Amino acid sequence: MRQLHLFGRLFALNVGVTFQYRGEFLIMQIGNLIVPITSLLVWQAALASGAPLPVDGEFLVAYFLLVSVVGMLTASWTAFYLAASIRDGALNRWLIRPASTHLDAVANNVGEKVVKLVIIVPLIAALALLLGDRIALPSDAGRWLLFAVAVVLAAGMRLALDIMIGSLAFWFEDVQGFIRALAVITPVLSGAVVPLALMPPGIAAVTAVQPFRFMLSYPMEVLLADPAGGPGGLTAGFALQVGWLAVFVAGAAGVWRLGLRSYAAAGA
Question: Which spans are transmembrane here (predicted)?
Fold first, then answer.
């Protein structure tokens, strides 16, 4: 209960701080819509020219509109700030407090996303109205519930991976190279740039089981496609997602504990 109370206070604090920068976040969210919309136009042009794609136009419209929302809901920016706190010794104050620095990271992550969600939902709704019957979303409440579960699991994977990378600052002076590499790899392998459903069969067999799929593409697959019709079905998909989450959480916990043992920042 104490940790839950602390989380509530940290969450409220982060929401308040984020709202002070709502204008900047509005511009940021508008910018985040540009790449998915551009990708949508490219693939729609391919369909119009007769390209044999395994999905229809309605799927593409819904997919790329959801990319912005799901990408925002599953994003994590913890690695940069965690690494900075390790390097400059700011981590010390969390080590003597009853609350963990990771609890603050989760509160910051969730609090900022609440504000972003308030901003981006009206933008997506306006685009959906403009597109009219070209977008088709399921009305089944069960499908939306499974989608929400998949999004939460995906967000957990991203956060755990970020903690793992940020914790490398215990041994590396600069982890920006790792962060930049992740920023390049993730959009490609997660389906943010090209839907994984459009991958050639040989590559699709690999992308179907790799972890980045479950950080973005899989929640949208659950919502937009028939999961039972995919390889392994719905149960296998969620089993893989939970399995990768367990691997990332275990990896983050292991790297963090090893790093704390060798922590020698100023004042530690």
Answer: 30-48, 60-84, 114-132, 144-172, 184-212, 232-256
Residue 267 lies in a domain: no
Q: For the residues of 158-202, what is the DSSP string, one character each?
A: HHHHHHHHHHGGGT-S--HHHHHHHHHHHHHHHTSSS-GGGS-HH
Say if residues 147 and 219 touch (Cβ distance below 8 Å).
yes
81 in a structural domain: yes
Instruction: Report whether 242 contacts 154 (CB < 8 A).
Output: no
Q: Residue 215 domain-assigned?
A: yes
pLDDT tens-digit readout, 85-111: 999 888 988 888 777 899 999 999 999
Q: State pTM to two decimals.
A: 0.90
- Report pLDDT digits (tens) over 186-223: 999 999 988 998 888 888 889 999 999 999 999 999 99
Number of domains in the chain: 1
The alpha carbon of 39 is separated from its chain's Cα centroid by a whole number of angstroms, namely 19
Contact 85, 91 (CB under 8 A): yes
Structure tokens at 253: 């916990």
Question: Residue 160: its pLDDT value, please?
Answer: 98
Q: Is 266 part of a structural domain of the chain?
A: no
Q: At a CB cut-off of 8 Å and minimum separation 6, what does 163 contact?
A: 78, 79, 82, 102, 105, 252, 255, 256
Helix axes of 101-131 and 141-167: crossing angle, nearest 10 degrees = 140
Tokens, residue 127: 């685009």
59: left (phi over 0), alpha (psi -120 to 50) or beta: alpha
Range of the domain at 233: 2-261
The dihedrals phi and psi of 129, each to the nearest 5 degrees, come to -65, -40
